[in-house]
C-alpha cells in the first residue's frame, strides 16, 4: 500500500512541477483579489488533471482514488482555493461516472475533460447542513419532466460566471425521506429557473467560487435524473465518501505547505544569537507537526486504497477527513506561532494558509459529523 507505482511517481512529479510553476506564484494574488482562477482551470483541463478520475472512454485519464489523493495534495501545497475547486470537480466526476447513463457521461464528463467546464454538487440548504436528510428542495413529476423548487447554499464551483452544471439532490417523496424519498438530477446552468445567487465572501479559500443556488420552477426532462428515482440520498452519501478523501488530501497538502514554511522560517530567524530552530521548544513543535502530518497522509492513502480495491471505505474516509482536517488546522496554527508576529502579517504565506485551513473541519461533513459516522460503524 505504501509503495507508489512508477506511474504514480510520475504523476506526482508532473502535478508538482505544474502546481509550483503555474499555481503557487499566483496564490497570494488570488487570495488578495478573490478572483476565480479560470485560466488555471483551463490549463488543468489541458493537462488532463480536471478529468483525472474520468474513465478514458469519456475523455479522462481513467485514474483511481490514490492517484486523486496524490494530485490534490500537490495542488493544495501550492494553493488551497485551486485545490478545493479541483477536489469538488473530482467528486462530481466520480458521482457521474458511477451513476450516470452513457449519454450523461458523454455530455457532462466530456465537457469537463475537453473544455474545462465545471460542475457543482448541490446538497446543502439553509436549514439542512449536517442533517442532509432535512432537505426542503422539491422535484415534482410533471409529464416527462420534473419541476424543481428550493434553494441551496454554500455551493462550490458556482459563481457569477463559474459553473456550468450541478448535481442537485431534491425531495421526490417526502414520506420516504432518506429511504427512497430523494433523487439526484443533473441540471445545466442555462436551464430556465436555475439562478446563481449571492457569491459568498469567505474567510479563506477566497478565490474558490461558492454561491447560493435558487431553483424556481426549474424544469428538467426525465433524462436528467442521475441514477434512479429515490436513490438521491445514497448517491450523495457514497459520493461524499470519496469527496472526504479528496478533502483529506487537500488538508495534507495545506499542512505540508505550513510545515515547510515553518521549517524554513525557523532556520533563518535569529533570536538570542542563534536560529530559533536551535531551541528545543521549536524543534518539538516541528517534530509533532511532521508526525501528525505523516499519520494524516497514511490514513488518507489507506482510505483511498480501500476504495480503489472496492472495499468498504466510508469509515476510513471519515477518519482521514477528520484527522487530516484537524491536523492541518493544528499544523497551520503552530507554523504561524513559529513565525511570531510576522506570521500574523500578510507578507508571509502562513497567514493565508492558516485562514485557508479553517474550512477543512467544516465542509463535506464537519469533524463532529465524521465522528458520528465513525462511531456508528463501530457500534453497529
Ligand atoms: C466554503 C464552503 C463550501 C461548501 N461547499 C459545498 C458544496 O459544494 N456543496 C454542498 O452541498 N455543501 C457545501 N458546503 C456546505 C457544508 O458541507 C456545510 O456547511 C457543512 O456540512 C455543515 O453544515 P452547516 O453549515 O449547516 O452547519 P450545521 O449543520 O448547522 O452545524 C453547526 C455545528 O453543529 C454541529 N453539529 C450539527 N449536528 C450535530 C450532531 N448531530 N452532533 C454533534 N454536533 C453537531 C456541527 O458539527 C457544527 O459544529 C460548503 C460550505 C462551505 C463553508
Summary, kept brief:
51% of the residues lie in helices and 16% in strands.
Please give a structural write-up.
Helix 5 packs antiparallel against helix 7, helix 7 runs parallel beside helix 9 and helix 7 packs antiparallel against helix 10. The protein is an alpha+beta fold. The two termini are 28 Å apart. The strands form 3 sheets. A 4-stranded mixed sheet has the order 1-4-5-8. Strands 2-3-7-6 form a 4-stranded antiparallel sheet, with helices on one face. Strands 9-10 form a two-stranded antiparallel ribbon. The protein is built from 11 helices and 10 strands. The longest helix is centred in the middle third of the chain and has 37 residues. The protein folds into 3 domains: 113 residues, Orthogonal Bundle (Butyryl-Coa Dehydrogenase, subunit A, domain 1); 110 residues, Butyryl-CoA Dehydrogenase, subunit A, domain 2, CATH 2.40.110.10; 147 residues, Butyryl-CoA Dehydrogenase, subunit A, domain 3. The site of flavin-adenine dinucleotide (FAD) has 22 residues, from strand 1, strand 3 and helix 11.
Shape descriptor: globular
Number of helices: 11
Characterize the largest beta sheet: strand count, sense, and whether it forms a barrel: 4 strands, mixed
CATH topology of the largest domain: Butyryl-CoA Dehydrogenase, subunit A, domain 3
What distance lies between the first and last C-alpha atoms, to the nearest angstrom?
Answer: 28 Å
In percent terms, what proportion of residues is strand?
15-25%
According to CATH, what is the class of the largest domain?
A: Mainly Alpha
In the sheet with the most strands, the strands line up as 1-4-5-8
Q: Note poorly predicted spans.
A: none
User: Considering the protein shown, what is the CATH homologous superfamily of the largest domain?
Assistant: Butyryl-CoA Dehydrogenase, subunit A, domain 3
Mean pLDDT: 97
Q: So, CATH architecture of the largest domain? A: Up-down Bundle
Bound chemical compounds: flavin-adenine dinucleotide
- How many beta-strand segments? 10
Q: Helical content, roughly?
A: 40-55%
Order of helices and strands: HHHHHHEEEEEEEEHEEHHHH
Broad structural category: alpha+beta
Number of structural domains: 3
Give Rg in angstroms.
21 Å
